[in-house]
Amino acid sequence: MTIAETSDQTPDAGAVDGFDGFDGFSRDGAPEGAAVLDEARALLAEYVILPSAEALDAVVLWCAATHVLSAFEYAPRLVIRSAEKGSGKSRLLELVDALVHQPLRSVNASISYVFRKVGAEAENPPTLLLDEADTIFKAGKHSDGSENLRGLLNAGFQRGMMCGRVGGQNNDQTKEYGTFAMAALCGIGRMPDTIENRAVVVAMRRRKPTEHVRPYRTRRDRPRFDQLRERLAAWAEVIRDRLDGYLPENMGVEDRAADTWEPLITVADAAGGDWPVRARRAARVMVAAAAEDDADESEGIRLLIDIRNVFAETGSAFLRSEHLCSHLRSIAESPWGDTGLTPRKLGWRLREYGIKADFEDATHRLRGYRLDQFTDAFERYAPAGLGISPETIEDVA
């Protein structure tokens, strides 16, 4: 699912109840946070069109977070992907390269080089930028190198995680490498689930003929980004100590998504202005979009969402197996008509969630499913917010 277009209006800065951030403080000549983030946002928007205002905010915050990684427990990944070539992925990665802390950009760097580079600079790791990552992880291509890189990217999400390697002339020496580092991946199609679950995912699209951007030329335009990167770094030095131990409130997301977004929202809170609200809005919208994307990928979750909707539309507390299958097969754009969903196939799918067909009452005449049988599965896999459009999500109140 592509992130929905949303309004680019400035949110109400008072929408985060009781939060006053760090007052956008500055000292020692460092720029005020909200201003430098605003400039980064405007500069990126000159050269690339992102799928939503929230995606643009997220990329700016991710770039800023690379400059204060030492203050965080987690290093969220940035996944830039699209369905087709020519969607601006590599251009966005090039611009990210110009704004982040100590970029290490590569298309085909060896895993050994990446391990050593990150491990050797554990106190001040580079920001990994991997272009054409789809060629590494594409279906059917499994190698020691790709699996090791996947392991590095998964482990490097959390501070303190190490990767061990065996080496030496006789393979009799062991060595542990630090893995904690920010990383951005760019490619066509989805990245492995274990990476996307730790990532801010930006799904790029080809520009319409009516959409225009300024052509990026390194010699002409890179100095503007270099100057802004230096200002981000200077501001980061000012706020670094203040960020230690800070935990943002009212993020609007939970569990792994909260781990992923915590650094970005922390940076936004430090910046002040309308950025605390923008960041929380971005988190809610983009996490909802990712959940929809996951549901589309998982037929099991798609089935639960559709069953939930059928019960809601019919108002029934019990549906015969045949009737439930008929309703499911009639849903437009669902796979159930194409797969020829039958009561037997439905029962097989639902058993994975601990749900079995039952009788409506003691007469044992009608066999099907009661709504209350799905309560646990709905809460775990298809909560009420899943299946709605991100446009309906309200700002944090």
Brief write-up:
By secondary structure, this protein is of the alpha/beta class. 44% of the residues lie in helices and 12% in strands. The chain contains 14 helices and 10 strands.
Write up what this structure looks like.
By secondary structure, the protein is of the alpha/beta class. The chain has 2 domains: 32-296, P-loop containing nucleotide triphosphate hydrolases (Rossmann fold), CATH 3.40.50.300; 299-381. It has 14 helices and 10 strands. The chain has helices at residues 33-47, 53-65, 89-99, 111-120, 134-137, 144-155, 193-196, 218-243, 255-271, 275-297, 299-314, 321-329, 343-351, 375-381, and strands at 77-82, 103-106, 127-130, 162-167, 173-178, 183-188, 199-204, 318-320, 358-359, 367-370. A 5-stranded parallel sheet has the order 2-3-6-1-7. Strands 8-10-9 form a 3-stranded antiparallel sheet. The chain has a two-stranded antiparallel sheet with strand order 4-5. α4 links the parallel β2 (103-106) and β3. α1 packs across α2 and α2 packs across α10. The two termini are 26 Å apart. The relative contact order is 0.16. Residues 1-20, 23-30 and 387-397 have low confidence and may be disordered.
